[in-house]
């Protein structure tokens, strides 16, 4: 793994993120967690041209063809109770959606807990992975991975993804390079991230960006059997609030949710 170059001195704008660029990595979340354990500062950012073993939610992989997407992870060291940071991936999804709209995209939907869609096709996603600091077990180190397909034209996707994924080029933006997309996301993520430990309510931060609220959902939380209900909204800690068919409201922190 060879770092190509970095930004040098911190930017004059807040926050002082420092982007380190890589040609190819296994996973930017893996490299950012390694950087965290080496003591690198918050807002260290790893931006890769390609990933060979990109990770999605659960045990899913993330296809990351070279030069065709935003493959980025951010090191965060949140100074807040875990309950306040439960909606971090969702807030990052709000930032990513806003950033892509600022680049000219239209019709992008954000679904709980961290999925970006263009129509019925997956466009991007967010994966937050938490580690405890070896020297200070109460302190959390977070790798916040953000993946967005930018332009997949002329690229043959793996079997199973054909027809299921979209890229930003289909959303009306024209050509967008990963650097531009990364900067747009970082600029929008920072104020939202600062607002979380300051006590800003998560539902208020994300409400206007969420898709599917008020609609039907199918929920799977193994080993229990799937069940159906209506998505009511987002809870104070980033949970999905679902009214079950037959009565009762569940606050979901982790689940497979099929919309519609």
Report what the structure shows.
- The chain has 260 residues and is α+β, with helices and mostly antiparallel strands.
- It has two domains: 3-208, Bira Bifunctional Protein, Domain 2 (BirA Bifunctional Protein, domain 2, 2-Layer Sandwich), CATH 3.30.930.10; 212-259, SH3 type barrels (Roll), CATH 2.30.30.100.
- It is 18% helix and 34% strand.
- It has four helices and 15 strands.
- The strands form three sheets. Strands 1-2-3-6-10-9-8-7 form an eight-stranded mixed beta sheet, with helices on both faces. Strands 14-13-12-11-15 form a five-stranded antiparallel beta sheet. It has a two-stranded antiparallel sheet with strand order 4-5.
Describe this protein with a few key phrases.
2 domains; alpha+beta; 260 residues; 34% strand; 5-stranded antiparallel beta sheet; BirA Bifunctional Protein, domain 2; 8-stranded mixed beta sheet; globular; SH3 type barrels; 4 helices
Task: Look up the CATH topology of the largest domain.
Answer: BirA Bifunctional Protein, domain 2
- Within CATH, the superfamily of the largest domain carries the name Bira Bifunctional Protein, Domain 2
CATH class of the largest domain: Alpha Beta
C-alpha Rg (nearest Å)? 18 Å
Tell me the strand percentage band. Answer: 25-35%
